[in-house]
Specification:
about 350 residues; alpha/beta; Arc Repressor Mutant, subunit A; Rossmann fold; seven-stranded mixed β-sheet; binds S-adenosylmethionine; S-adenosyl-L-methionine
């Protein structure tokens, strides 16, 4: 018996760190700019790294199928694979570079305390970053720089799977949409692209709205507006549809119902709420990504990932009816619940 899986799992973090480091050093960016295969010497010089270290890093990236090799005169040259060019270079419209940075600099450090998180049943900001976790988003946004990094993390995935989420139900009847906790506006943009007649108001904390306005949503996005506020305290905009994307997974069941009840009160009759989350199978058997994300929620938030039925129960407890969910086949799924006319 050979414990292949266990050996792979034991060393899985070596793979993550290889990807983090290659991105951080700019290996994929240098190869993109060169427009021709480069030698290890050329890449190490361009990024200011040791030749020996770079040769090993490039070899590992080749093994991970993130780089192609080309042999010429018994010398090896490297180029980006198609996936590396599209997803690992900084300038690509579908870049995951900022997400990888956040995984490397923040999430990885929190996961160092996973054992404590499981023992204590709570997030690990105090140990990982020396900040109080009493107010979750004060801990997450412990500096302006951290907040912007988080916003980039939130932004990138919707360029990849936002369309699937917003089209998993036909949202055409909903013209006035409010994206609660809409952050950088990436999902709002996907809504306005998919539904030419809708307008979207991004409701978020004041400092998030300020940065989103300045750096993420341009004047060209004319159908996207903003409202600053605290969705647990301040009055919410009246809308036909409220989107809660990756919001409820941050909070306990009690807090979720509190928020959903507030939404139910202001939602127009015939309106709806759309939850966007990574849904667990009903028997908890998968998908692995959602199971791992639920551990991540333990380490980083007050919430958890849930099944479609668990989200439906939260919505029903807040007054919503006719609740359905759709799986997209990608990371994030959608649950839609209605307010009766
Ligand atoms: N919906 C976005 C997405 O999926 O990319 C962002 C999800 S992020 C996990 C949670 C968002 O909720 C952040 O933008 C955060 O600033 C916002 N948020 C957290 N607490 C809030 C509050 N009390 N009032 C308003 N927004 C809040």
């Amino acid at each position: 018996m050979y414990p292949r899986k266990i050996l792979e799992y034991m060393e899985g973090f070596l793979i993550s760190k290889t990807v983090f480091t290659s991105c951080e050093l700019g290996v994929f960016d240098v190869l993109l700019a060169a427009e021709r295969p480069l030698s290890a010497e050329e890449i190490s010089q361009a990024v200011g790294a040791s030749l020996d270290g770079m040769q090993r890093l490039l070899a590992a990236c080749t093994g991970l199928q993130l780089l192609n090799t080309h042999w010429d005169n018994r010398q090896v040259f490297y180029s980006n694979t198609e996936q590396s060019r599209v997803f690992l270079t900084r300038s690509s419209p579908l870049s995951l570079y900022q997400s990888i940075q956040y995984s490397s600099r923040t999430i990885y450090l929190c996961w160092h305390y996973l054992t404590d998180a499981v023992r204590e049943g709570r997030n690990q900001y105090e140990k990982a970053f020396g900040v109080s976790s009493k107010d979750l988003f004060q801990a997450l946004y412990r500096s302006d720089e951290e907040m912007v990094k988080f916003m980039h993390l939130m932004n990138s995935i919707w360029n990849i799977c936002g369309k699937d989420v917003v089209t998993s139900f036909d949202l055409t009847p909903f013209k006035v949409i409010c994206d609660l906790g809409g952050c950088s506006g990436a999902l709002a943009k996907q809504c306005t692209l998919a539904y030419p007649e809708c307008t979207v108001t991004i409701f978020d904390l004041p400092k998030v709205v300020r940065v989103s306005r300045e750096h993420f949503v341009t004047e060209a996005d004319q159908r996207i507006g903003f409202q600053e506020g605290d969705f647990f305290k301040d009055s919410l905009p009246v809308a036909d549809l409220y989107i809660l994307a990756r919001i409820l997974h941050d909070w306990t069941d009690e807090r979720c119902i509190e928020l959903l009840c507030r939404i139910y009160k202001v939602c127009k009759p015939g309106g709806a709420v759309l939850l966007v989350e990574a849904l667990l199978n009903e028997d908890g058997s998968g998908p692995l990504t959602a199971q791992l994300y639920s551990l991540n929620m333990l380490v980083q938030t007050e919430g958890r990932e849930r099944t479609g039925a668990q989200y439906a129960a939260l919505m029903a407890a807040s007054g919503f009816t006719n609740i359905q969910h759709h799986l997209t086949g990608k990371i994030y799924d959608a649950v839609l619940g209605h307010k009766e006319t």
